[in-house]
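[step 3/7] inverse_fold.run input=structure_tokens len=274
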């Protein structure tokens, strides 16, 4: 098998064969070691949900593959400069609540309303990014329902068309019924009120005006309304973008009547907050 020149079957020198086998074994060992110890790069596929209201308990799931423990996730505002260095990491950094190979659950408590990018880092090395990843809307303001009494001065035939159960139509025809004021009761306070209804002004010599008008007979009605309101600022409750306080104007328009009145009283909304 081995001739006098040290060749196997007269073809290959034993030393050359040994070196060749050693190289093949080393290459196979290196490839196996790389496959075992190499960490695949994380891939971000989507964020669930991508848009949500801003709140202290807001959370999202970063869905993809090749996630692992000890990663760091940063969420700078879209369009702002961003960099991470070992000595001075730039934030805000999002706390990671849970980790699987396919998802990271992130807590957004440090973020305010706005649009944010997402960066995944291993120490100071960027592994993945997703632009315009999260949009946080301003939190929905507190809502409540309060009872208010509105005094209206209107013709008797119009007052007779206001009935319990009627809803205020308001300027937004697409608003849900739950967002519109509803009449609970109508109380006629005066059967007849004589009102001068000014119609026309005619200019006279010497910058004098002659007002032409007529007297009309109207009634005074107190309408009890159940009004859904929002807290625009602490203690300031609004309906249709207007404050609802005693003395404020209130426009009421139902399917059968339209009138302008004044808020007489309103109850404290704290007891009926929803």
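[step 3/7] decode complete -> sequence:
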């Amino acid at each position: 098998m081995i001739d006098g020149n040290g060749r196997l079957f007269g073809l290959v020198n034993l030393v050359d064969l040994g070196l060749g086998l050693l190289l093949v074994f080393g290459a196979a060992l290196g490839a196996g070691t790389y496959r075992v110890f190499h960490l695949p790069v994380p891939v971000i596929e989507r964020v669930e949900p991508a848009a949500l209201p801003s709140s202290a308990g807001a959370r999202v799931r970063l869905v993809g593959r090749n996630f692992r423990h000890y990663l760091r996730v940063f969420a700078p505002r879209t369009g702002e400069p961003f960099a991470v260095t070992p000595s001075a990491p730039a934030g805000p950094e999002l706390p990671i609540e849970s980790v699987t190979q396919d998802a990271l659950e992130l807590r957004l408590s440090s973020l305010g309303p706005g649009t944010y990018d997402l960066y995944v880092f291993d120490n100071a090395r960027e592994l993945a990014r997703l632009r315009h990843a999260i949009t946080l809307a301003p939190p929905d303001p507190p809502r409540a329902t309060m009872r208010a009494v509105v005094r209206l001065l209107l013709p008797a035939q119009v007052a007779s068309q206001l009935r319990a159960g009627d809803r205020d139509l308001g300027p937004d025809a697409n608003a849900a019924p739950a967002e519109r004021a509803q009449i609970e009761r109508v109380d006629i306070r005066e059967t007849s009120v004589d009102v001068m209804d000014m119609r026309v002004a005619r200019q006279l010599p010497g910058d004098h005006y002659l007002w032409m008008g007529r007297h009309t007979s109207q009634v005074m009605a107190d309408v009890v309304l159940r009004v859904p309101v929002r807290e625009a600022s602490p203690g300031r409750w609004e309906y249709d973008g207007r404050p609802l306080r005693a003395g404020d104007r209130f426009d009421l328009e139902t399917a059968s009547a339209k009138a302008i009145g004044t808020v007489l009283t309103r109850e404290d909304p704290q007891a009926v907050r929803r």
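[step 4/7] annotate
The longest helix spans residues 14-37.
The two ends are 95 Å apart (CA to CA).
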